[in-house]
Design brief:
Layout: E1 2-9, H1 19-32, E2 39-44, H2 49-59, E3 63-68, E4 76-79, E5 85-88, H3 90-98, E6 106-110, H4 115-121, E7 127-131, H5 137-152, H6 157-171, E8 202-206, E9 223-225, E10 231-232, E11 238-243, E12 249-254, E13 259-263, E14 269-273, E15 280-285, E16 291-296, E17 300-305, E18 317-322, E19 344-348, E20 353-358, E21 364-369, E22 375-380, E23 386-391, E24 396-400, E25 410-412, E26 420-425, E27 431-436, E28 440-445, E29 450-458, E30 464-469, E31 475-480, E32 485-489, E33 495-499, E34 506-511, E35 517-522, E36 526-532
C-alpha cells in the first residue's frame, strides 16, 4: 500500500485557491485507476508547522503533495494558530523531511516559486517537484491530474512528471490569473494579466543516489469506515446531522436550502424536504422520532410529520415559525429537549437571545437575553433540566430550565479566544464538552462550571466545528476545518483515532443512539459513515 499525504494551506488574507477541487480530482483519478487498491490518500487542511510534523509521523507517506501558496526564498506558506500566513524556513523544512527519507519517495510542491524548496529537499528525497515561477490554479490542477493519473496507472515518477507537464500543454493555452504566490485577496495584483505558458512548466529534481524505499505498516485503527457508501445528494455544504432514535435513518441539512432524510442501511434518500428560502443551518428530531425539525439562516423553523411524508415527497409542514426577527446563528444542530415530559426545542439568534418553543405546536414559551453577542451553539442536558449556550464572544453560560429566572447558574467567561462553535453534554450530565474556533476542545464540570481534568484537548489543525459524545459516555468525536474527524478518550483526553477521507472542512459529526455508527459531513457534500469498534490507541 502506497500512502499519499496531501497538505493544504490557504491562510486568511491570501488569494483564495480552489484546493478542494484539486484534492477531489486527485482522489477521483486514483479511484478510477487500475491500481486503485494500492493507494491510500490522507488529507490535512489548514496546516500549521506543528501539523506538518504530526501528519508525517502519523501517516508515514511515500508521496507528499503540498497545495497552497509559495514565496520563493521566503518559504512555503502555512498557517499560524489564528489562520494567518506562517512562512516555513527552507532549511528547517529540509531537516524535517530528512527524518522521513527512508520511507518518502516523492514530494510535489504545487505552489509558486517552490523550486527553491525543491533544491533544498532534493538532498534527502529521491524526487522533488517544484515550480520555477508563478503557477495558476487551473495549471496546478491540470498538472496534478496528469501526474496522479499516471501514478495510478503504475508509471514511474519521472514519466508521471512528463505526463503532468503534457496535461498543462494540452488543456491550457495560458494560466489562470489566480496564481499560487502569496497575494492578498483584495490586492490589485489579483487582476494581473495571464502569464505565458513557459511559466507553467514544473521542475523535476532527482537525487543523485536514490534511496531504497521500504514501506512501513499502516497505523492501527479503532473506528473504521462502514461498508456503506457515502450518502451523496446535497449540492452545497452539509451543515448539520441528526440520527433518528432507532438509529435507522439520518437527517441532514445543507446550504442548498434542503433537508434530506436517508435510510442508513440502503443509503437511499427517503425524503427531500424543501421550502426553506435560505441555507438550512440545523436539524433536530423529536425523542419519539415522529417530528423532524429544521432551522434556516433567515430565522424560520419548520416542523415535518415523518409519518405523513411519502417517498421523496415533501408533504406538509406541521408548522412554520419565525423564531427570530434577526438571523439565526445556530450552526450545528437544532437542539431538542431529550426529556419527553418537557417537549421543547431552543433557538439562538444574532442579537444574543435564546428562545424556547413547544415541540408539538411551535408555540412560543419564553425568550431571555443570554449573551451580548450572537448565540452560536446550544445543548440540552440528558435530563432536559439544563440548557448550555455558547456565543461569538467566547462565553459559555449554563441555564436552569425549571424556573423562569433569566440569570445563568454558571458563567464561563473567556472560554475561548473567539467563537464557541459547538457544545455537547455527557450522558451522565456531569461533563460539558466544547469545540472552538481556536482549534481546541475543552472539558468542563457542568455541575460547577469549572475546568475539568483533562481540560484542553489539542490536535486539530483547523476550527473545531462540531463535537459529539458517544452514547456510552466514553468517547468524544470532533469534526474540523482540517478535513478530519478525531476520536478522543473522554476520561484521559488522548486521541484514539484520526479519521480521514473528507475532501473539505467537516462541519458536522454525530453518534447513532445505539452507538454503532458515527456520521460526518461537510464541504465535500458527502455524509460518511464509520463503524464504532474497539478503542485501540493510535
Amino acid at each position: 500500500m502506497k500512502r499519499i499525504l496531501i497538505l493544504a494551506s490557504n491562510p486568511k488574507g491570501t488569494s483564495v485557491l480552489d484546493l478542494d477541487r484539486e484534492i477531489r480530482d486527485i482522489r477521483e483519478g486514483l479511484r478510477r485507476s487500475q491500481n486503485r487498491d494500492q493507494f491510500d490518500i490522507e488529507v490535512r487542511g489548514a496546516v500549521r508547522p506543528i501539523d506538518l510534523r504530526r501528519a508525517m509521523l502519523e501517516v508515514q507517506p511515500q508521496i507528499v503533495h503540498f497545495c497552497g501558496h509559495g514565496s520563493g526564498e521566503g518559504g512555503l506558506v502555512l498557517e499560524d494558530d489564528r489562520g494567518n500566513e506562517k512562512f516555513v524556513d527552507n532549511d528547517a523544512l529540509s531537516q524535517l523531511f530528512k527524518q522521513f527519507s527512508d520511507n518518502l519517495e516523492c514530494i510535489l510542491l504545487n505552489a509558486c516559486y517552490s523550486e527553491v524548496q525543491a533544491n533544498a529537499l532534493i538532498q534527502h528525497i529521491n524526487y522533488v517537484i517544484g515550480m520555477s515561477r508563478e503557477i495558476g490554479d487551473e495549471a496546478a490542477i491540470a498538472f496534478s491530474i496528469g501526474f496522479y493519473d499516471s501514478v495510478g496507472a503504475g508509471r514511474t515518477v519521472e514519466v508521471a512528471y512528463k505526463l503532468g507537464c503534457n496535461a498543462i500543454a494540452l488543456e491550457l493555452s495560458s494560466s489562470s490569473p489566480q496564481s499560487r504566490k502569496l497575494i492578498p485577496i483584495q490586492s490589485p495584483e489579483d487582476r494581473q494579466t495571464p502569464i505565458s505558458p513557459d511559466h507553467l512548466i514544473p521542475v523535476l529534481k532527482k537525487k543523485e543516489n536514490l534511496n531504497v524505499i521500504v514501506a512501513s505498516a499502516s497505523p492501527s485503527v479503532s473506528i473504521k469506515k462502514s461498508q456503506l457508501e457515502p450518502l451523496i445528494g446535497h449540492s452545497d455544504w452539509i451543515r448539520s446531522l441528526a440520527f433518528s432514535p432507532d438509529s435507522k435513518t439520518i437527517l441532514s441539512s445543507s446550504n442548498d436550502k434542503t433537508v434530506r432524510l436517508w435510510d442508513i442501511e440502503t443509503g437511499q434518500l427517503l425524503h427531500l424536504l424543501t421550502g426553506h428560502r435560505d441555507r438550512v443551518k440545523g436539524v433536530g428530531i423529536s425523542p419519539d422520532g415522529k417530528l423532524l425539525l429544521s432551522c434556516s439562516a433567515d430565522g424560520s423553523v419548520k416542523a415535518w410529520d415523518k409519518n405523513q411524508l411519502t417517498a421523496k415527497k415533501t408533504g406538509d409542514c406541521r408548522y412554520t415559525i419565525r423564531a427570530s426577527s434577526k438571523p439565526i446563528t445556530l450552526v450545528h444542530s437544532l437542539p431538542v429537549n431529550p426529556n419527553s415530559q418537557h417537549p421543547i426545542f431552543a433557538t439562538g439568534a444574532e442579537h444574543g437571545k435564546v428562545s424556547l418553543w413547544r415541540l408539538d405546536t411551535g408555540e412560543w414559551v419564553r425568550t431571555f437575553q443570554a449573551h451580548s453577542s450572537p448565540v452560536i451553539s446550544l445543548s440540552f442536558s440528558p435530563d432536559g433540566k439544563v440548557l448550555v449556550s455558547g456565543s461569538v464572544n467566547s462565553t459559555i453560560k449554563v441555564w436552569q430550565l425549571n424556573d423562569n429566572s433569566h440569570q445563568p447558574i454558571h458563567i464561563i467567561p473567556h472560554a475561548y479566544m473567539s467563537e464557541v462553535l459547538s457544545l455537547a453534554i455527557s450522558p451522565d450530565g456531569q461533563t460539558l464538552v466544547s469545540g472552538g474556533a481556536d482549534r481546541t476542545i475543552k472539558l468542563w464540570d457542568l455541575t460547577t462550571g469549572m475546568e475539568n481534568i483533562p481540560h484542553i484537548l489539542e490536535g486539530h489543525a483547523g476550527r473545531v466545528w462540531c463535537v459529539a459524545i458517544s452514547p456510552d459516555g466514553t468517547k468524544i468525536a470532533s469534526s474540523s476545518a482540517d478535513y478530519t474527524v478525531k476520536i478522543w478518550d473522554l476520561k484521559t483526553g488522548k486521541i484514539l483515532q484520526t479519521l480521514t477521507g473528507h475532501l473539505g472542512e467537516v462541519r458536522a459529526v454525530a453518534f447513532s443512539p445505539n452507538g454503532n455508527l458515527l456520521a460526518s459531513g461537510g464541504d465535500d457534500l458527502e455524509i460518511r459513515l464509520w463503524q464504532v469498534q474497539a478503542t485501540d490507541a493510535a
